[in-house]
Automatic annotation (TrEMBL):
Transmembrane helix recorded as keyword: no
Domain Mur ligase central intervals: 105-290
Involved pathway(s): Cell wall biogenesis; peptidoglycan biosynthesis
Gene label: murF
Protein name: UDP-N-acetylmuramoyl-tripeptide--D-alanyl-D-alanine ligase
InterPro entries: Mur-like_cat_sf (IPR036565), Mur_ligase_C (IPR004101), Mur_ligase_C_dom_sf (IPR036615), Mur_ligase_cen (IPR013221), Mur_ligase_N (IPR000713), MurCDEF_CellWall_CoF430Synth (IPR051046), MurE/MurF_N (IPR035911), UDP-N-AcMur_synth (IPR005863)
Database matches in Pfam families: Mur_ligase, Mur_ligase_C, Mur_ligase_M
Physiological role: Involved in cell wall formation. Catalyzes the final step in the synthesis of UDP-N-acetylmuramoyl-pentapeptide, the precursor of murein.
Gene Ontology molecular functions: ATP binding; UDP-N-acetylmuramoyl-tripeptide-D-alanyl-D-alanine ligase activity; UDP-N-acetylmuramoylalanyl-D-glutamyl-2,6-diaminopimelate-D-alanyl-D-alanine ligase activity
Protein species of origin: Marinomonas ushuaiensis DSM 15871
Family to which this protein belongs: Belongs to the MurCDEF family. MurF subfamily.
GO cellular-component term (any): cytoplasm
Domain of life of the organism encoding this protein: Bacteria
Length: 448
């Protein structure tokens, strides 16, 4: 941890009450398996667990204090109204002590890719980054608490599943650089419509440092709204027209990469962008601007786009046992990301293209219309066959078949894998669906 804290300092930051003698702590944990001498144990609560049940055990193992929402029988503890909020307040103390730039990334699509690509591209720096997708009210504080005096920059991802979550995360991370990739149709169930999603994402801008740099997608319909939230903060934009500060010309999309000419404030550089798809070019532009925002020269930032970012389950190129191209895009799914993946599948140099689709989650009342539209989109893009897993994904299959396409309907992952298991190198297979659809089971069946 970057600095040591006292229980009294933590009590003030959390608007809590210190009960018992003051203690100095050098580590904050939420799991008794990570307890060490001199640490603070924060008793978080979830639907299926309650950290308060382990408070005494944590103290017996070496913790010198507990953050609790109730009276407990230990020597020293900080009593607060909500331990999750308190956890964020403690992380904010560490963030405030950090002198380096903090970059925070949010958006409906692309945030994890941008986070990982940016972190990889800052290879000359000691970077703290969000691990995997630990981007919520537990994961984000946990990441900031890992800051130490060796770190030079923090690259943090912020996600949301309920209204108000981004505002709370922004209050913790207080970014120096905001990257907002886009707002698209995910989490309709929680936010109702695109406007609700855009408002939620925009809270990261409102919660940024007063002199923060805000990086926005100029092609997003909510670009002007987000610019209005910047309130005097410097904004940098990226997009596919010259209305953006950074834009691309001469775009050639290929099966595994793209060639583009990037133009930024009078400079023009031709480059190869590693990774397939127009969305990857957009993510790359966001990375370049984030690098520029933290002091990297534009020409050096562009060079970073040549190095592919490999994220498991994100357009990951594999081979089946019979050498068919297998594109694993199971990490998660929104309507926009499914369309982007279909675009990549459609440009593969093969005889036939196969989409194995699982259900998209958290779409609320728009579940039917969105899956129907995806079936139409797949047919429009010339996908040879759509294999649907489950009743919700089958809605896409019905519209695909209605347009003249060949659709196959399966009840299980095993059935779907069996449909394509004999395909050879003349075929490309894309597997896509929300995390809840567990489409990685199809991948495992095809590569084992």
């Amino acid at each position: 941890m970057l600095i040591k804290l006292t229980l009294s300092e933590i009590a003030r930051a959390c608007e809590g009450e210190l009960i018992g003698p003051d203690q100095e702590i050098d580590t904050v944990v939420t799991d008794t398996r990570q307890v060490s001498a001199g640490c603070l144990f924060v008793a978080l609560k979830g639907e299926r667990f309650d950290g308060h049940d382990y408070a005494i055990s944590a103290m017996d193992s070496g913790a010198v204090g507990v953050v609790s929402d109730r009276d407990i029988d230990v020597i020293s503890y900080v009593k607060v109204s909500d331990t999750t909020l308190a956890y964020g307040c403690i992380a904010r103390l560490i963030r405030n002590a950090f002198a380096g730039p903090v970059v925070c990334i949010t958006g409906s699509n692309g945030k994890t890719t941008v986070k990982d690509w940016l972190s990889q591209s800052l290879s000359g720096k000691n970077v703290l980054k969000t691990h995997a997708n630990l981007n919520n009210q537990i994961g984000l504080p946990q990441t900031l608490l890992e800051l130490d005096d060796q770190h030079e920059i923090a690259v943090i991802e912020a996600g949301t599943s309920v209204p108000g979550e981004i505002e709370r995360l922004a209050n913790i991370v207080s970014p120096d650089v905001v990257v907002l990739t886009n707002a698209s149709g995910s989490h309709f169930e929680g936010f109702g419509n695109l406007e609700g999603i855009a408002r939620e994402k925009g809270c990261l801008i409102s919660g940024a440092e007063p002199d923060a740099i805000v990086i926005l997608n100029s092609d997003d319909p909510f670009f002007d709204y987000w610019c209005g939230l910047a309130h005097g903060r410097q904004t940098l934009s990226f997009g596919f027209t010259n209305a953006a500060d950074l834009y691309v010309d001469d775009v050639v999309l290929s099966a595994e990469s793209s060639t583009v000419t990037l133009k930024y404030r009078g400079e023009s550089i031709s480059a190869v962008v590693a990774g397939a798809g127009k969305h990857t070019v957009a993510n790359g532009m966001a990375v370049v601007l984030a690098m520029v925002a933290v002091g990297v020269r534009f020409s050096s930032a562009v060079k970073a786009l040549m190095s592919p970012i490999l994220v498991s389950g994100r357009l990951e190129r594999l081979r089946t046992k019979n050498e068919a191209l297998l594109i694993n895009d199971c990490y998660n799914a929104s309507p926009t990301s499914v369309e982007a993946a279909i675009d990549v599948l459609a440009i593969q140099p093969v005889e036939k293209t196969w989409l194995i689709l699982g259900a998209l989650g958290e779409l609320g009342e728009q579940e039917g219309s969105i899956h129907q539209a995806l079936g139409i989109y797949a047919k429009k893009k010339g996908i040879s066959c759509l294999v649907c897993v489950g009743p919700v994904a089958s809605i896409a299959g019905i519209s695909f078949r209605s347009g003249g396409g060949h659709a196959i309907f399966c009840d299980t992952h095993e059935e779907a894998a069996a449909v394509v298991c004999t395909l050879d190198k003349r075929h490309a297979i894309l597997v896509k669906g929300s995390r809840s659809a567990k489409m990685e089971n199809v991948i495992e069946a095809l590569i084992k």
